UniProtKB/TrEMBL annotation:
InterPro entries: Folylpolyglutamate_synth_CS, Mur-like_cat_sf, Mur_ligase_C, Mur_ligase_C_dom_sf, Mur_ligase_cen, MurD. Residues 118-296 form the Mur ligase central domain. Keywords: ATP-binding, Cell cycle, Cell division, Cell shape, Cell wall biogenesis/degradation, Cytoplasm, Ligase, Nucleotide-binding, Peptidoglycan synthesis. This is UDP-N-acetylmuramoylalanine--D-glutamate ligase. Belongs to the MurCDEF family. SUPFAM superfamilies: MurCD N-terminal domain, MurD-like peptide ligases, catalytic domain, MurD-like peptide ligases, peptide-binding domain. It comes from Candidatus Portnoybacteria bacterium RIFCSPHIGHO2_12_FULL_38_9. Its EC number is 6.3.2.9. One of its GO terms (cellular component) is cytoplasm. NCBIfam families: murD. The gene is murD. It is an enzyme of class 6 (ligase).
């Protein structure tokens, strides 16, 4: 496959989306000389940001609907990873022998550089970013791309054979590698927990898509696995590549070839890489992310000194236990990317028992189980603000099953984020934390989780101004 192959071809982009991936793909093919038609079920107003990125390009748009003819009379359909394989329009394309691909699948065909792929239910963004920061200490051309609100294809022009590419890959993006039978030369899996079970019929299906990150690796390739996650640990039996484990909990076991924790330090083999105090990220889950990154960077010859330097500079990513403000002794923390109950649990476990937590949660359910989260809420949360949605109903039901009259949790249902923040501020006392960590998708109330986080920031900023008398 070559970029020149797309010149004058009719290409249908299915799903412009809101995170930049569809828009990036449309831009790439348009600039490659293709005749591009972009179609999305959302309307012009909802897609305003994506359309702005494509201004001035000779692209046709069909919005608010999909048309059958755009999936029949085309040379290629490039589908957004979020579009289900069961879509009647994709089935129509298949019936009419129109090829279907994804931006990630095409990227793997065109990328001239080695690829390090990172996946996991949670932690993949932080881990991928950390790996890129560490590699940049030694290599001059490190490209970070993937599931980061942009199309990987937009990065192709920056990449040559001397580059190193770090890709964050979702399960849906990994599924797009099947037609190509390609996996990254180095694959990292942070963890696997229930997620997207509104899309997958079973957990086994979800895991099968995750396995695409190493399914077509060769014996000289590397697979870096979290030993502390039973599902991940047992994937080694399916791997043809060399497996390297990291662990935060099991110390220097014989099978641990990657990073591990001993005392208050992170080690690689017998060498201390850094102290736990060098890590500016809260929570056990982030310690695992650091260990994954340390293990990967060492594989590429980055020294312990350089790894430590990158770690000390890294302050975390937007929407991941991100401290927004401190008002009247109360910390406001944005953890909007916690879209599963397990991710909320990880966030709650990051705080000490002495810290009172006011939790803003709820939203659209992904067919997940909230029983464990409910138990933690009863033990650790003193105030719960619930945003509208199907997950909210499940959280309430789970709490009703276990909460006794002695469990003094104040539960308030709110209709919007500004109301949630206002009510949270009334419940919070000095030393408390107001935490946005929904455990659910954002659909219905927000376009995506990042908009939810932005609305939280706006509401906190308004509150801060009111308290300051501005």
């Amino acid at each position: 496959m070559n970029i020149k192959d797309f010149k004058n071809k009719k290409i249908t982009i299915m799903g412009l989306g809101l995170h930049g991936g569809g828009a990036g793909a449309a831009k790439f093919f348009s600039q490659a000389g293709a005749r591009v038609l972009a179609t999305d079920l959302r309307n012009k107003e909802e897609l305003k940001e994506s359309l702005e990125k494509l201004k001035g390009l000779p692209i046709k748009f069909v919005l608010g609907q999909h048309r059958s003819e755009d999936f029949i009379n085309t040379d290629l359909v490039v589908k957004n990873p979020a579009v289900s394989e069961k879509s009647k329009y994709l089935q129509l394309a298949q019936k009419n022998k129109a090829p279907i691909d994804t931006d990630v699948g095409i990227f793997f065909e065109l990328c001239p550089a080695p690829i390090i792929g990172v996946t996991g239910t949670k932690g993949k963004s932080t881990t991928a970013s950390l790996i890129a920061k560490m590699l940049a200490q030694k290599y001059s051309k490190v490209i970070l791309a993937g599931n980061i609100r942009a199309s990987v294809l937009e990065k192709l022009s920056e990449i040559d054979k001397n580059s190193l590419v770090v890709l964050e890959l979702s399960s849906w993006q990994l599924a797009g590698l099947r037609p190509h039978r390609k996996s990254p030369g180095t694959a990292v899996i942070t963890n696997i927990m229930p997620d997207h079970l509104n899309r997958y019929q079973t957990m086994a299906e979800y895991i099968e898509d995750k396995k695409c990150i190493f399914k077509w690796q060769k014996s000289k390739n590397y697979l870096i696995l979290n030993y502390d996650d039973k599902i991940v640990r047992e994937l080694n039996g399916s791997a043809k590549s060399q497996v390297i484990y990291f662990t935060a909990e099991n110390g220097p076991l014989e099978e641990i070839k990657g990073g591990f924790v001993k005392g208050d330090k992170i080690f690689l083999k017998k060498e201390a890489v850094c102290s736990l105090e060098d890590i500016n990220l809260a929570g056990q889950h982030n310690l695992n992310n650091v260990l994954a990154a340390v293990t990967t960077a060492s594989l590429y010859g980055v020294s312990a000194k350089s790894i430590k330097k990158a770690l000390k500079k890294f302050k975390g990513l937007e929407g991941r236990l991100e401290i927004i403000a401190q008002i009247n002794g109360v910390k406001y923390i944005n953890d909007t990317t916690a879209t599963t109950p397990e991710a909320v649990l990880a966030g709650l476990n990051s705080f000490s028992a002495k810290q009172g937590i006011i939790l803003i949660a709820g939203g659209a359910d992904k067919n997940l189980d909230f029983s464990q989260l409910a138990e933690k809420i009863v033990k650790k949360v003193k105030g719960l603000l619930l945003l509208p949605g199907t997950a909210t109903d499940k959280i309430e039901t789970a709490l009703e099953k276990i909460a006794s009259s002695e469990d003094a949790i104040r539960i308030i249902k709110v209709s919007q984020m500004s109301e949630a923040v206002q009510e949270a501020s009334k419940l919070a006392a000095t030393g408390d934390i107001v935490l946005l960590s929904s455990g659910a998708a954002s659909f219905g109330l927000f376009r995506h989780e990042f908009e939810r986080g932005e609305e939280f920031k706006k509401a906190v900023s308004l509150l801060k101004n009111l308290e300051s008398g501005i």
